[in-house]
């Protein structure tokens, strides 16, 4: 599994700024509706409910919002780069500028966890994050993410 199996290039966005975490989740929900033909309010609700359990801001300017949702055929992803970082309630109190959102089928456990681990591994790489922060083109961001998630040759 690599990110190209869960991430549609049209679900990669680069924003100049966004006022707050709630607006960001609303934006991501709208992109999910547009790209993946999902109901905006349902996506917004599952992501908001998950954030109530605890922030998905993992530190170092990165957030990985994730939730399970009825009616999805497979795990899907969305990526947002923000030029002006936003407070996300992260564990290190740093604002977030790289956001990878995962939505998984409600009954899916293993694939959701595999995707979450893959995204986490990819964004743990400082060089990858530096490249993502240095680029604003959604197509370039998509390419960086997909290449970074490919298995490394021995």
Task: Please tell me about this protein's structure.
It is a single chain. With 154 residues, the chain is an alpha/beta fold. The protein has five helices and six strands, in the order βααβββββααα. Strands 1, 2, 3, 4, 5 and 6 form a six-stranded mixed beta sheet that branches. A hairpin with a 2-residue loop joins strand 2 and strand 3. Helix 1 (21-36) crosses helix 2. It starts with 6 loop residues before the first strand and ends in a 6-residue tail after the last helix. The mean pLDDT is 93.
Query: How many helical stretches?
Result: 5
Low-confidence stretches: none
N-to-C order of helices and strands: EHHEEEEEHHH
The multimeric state of the shown protein is single chain
The total count of strands amounts to 6
Mean pLDDT: 93
The main sheet comes to: 6 strands, mixed
State the gist of this model:
With 154 residues, this protein is α/β, with parallel strands linked by helices. 42% of the residues lie in helices and 25% in strands.
Quick tags:
single chain, 154 residues, alpha/beta, 5 helices, 6 strands
SSE topology:
Blueprint: E1 7-15, H1 21-36, H2 40-53, E2 57-59, E3 62-63, E4 66-69, E5 76-86, E6 96-105, H3 110-124, H4 126-134, H5 138-148
Parallel strand pairs: 1-5, 3-6, 4-6
Antiparallel strand pairs: 2-3, 5-6
Helix pairs in contact: 1-2
């Amino acid at each position: 599994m690599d990110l190209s199996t869960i991430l549609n290039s049209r679900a990669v966005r680069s924003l100049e700024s966004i006022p707050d975490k709630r607006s960001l989740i609303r934006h991501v929900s709208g992109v999910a509706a547009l790209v993946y033909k999902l109901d905006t309010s349902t996506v917004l609700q599952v992501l908001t409910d998950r954030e109530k359990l605890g922030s998905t801001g993992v530190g170092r300017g990165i957030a990985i919002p994730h939730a399970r949702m009825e009616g999805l055929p497979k795990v899907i992803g969305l990526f947002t780069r923000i030029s002006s970082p936003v407070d996300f309630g992260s564990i290190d109190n740093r604002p977030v500028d790289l956001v990878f959102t995962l939505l998984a089928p409600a009954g899916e456990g293993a694939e959701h966890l595999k995707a979450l681990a893959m995204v986490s591994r990819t964004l743990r790489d400082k060089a990858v994050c530096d490249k993502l922060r240095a680029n604003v083109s959604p197509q370039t961001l998509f390419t960086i993410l997909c290449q970074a998630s490919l298995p490394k040759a021995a």
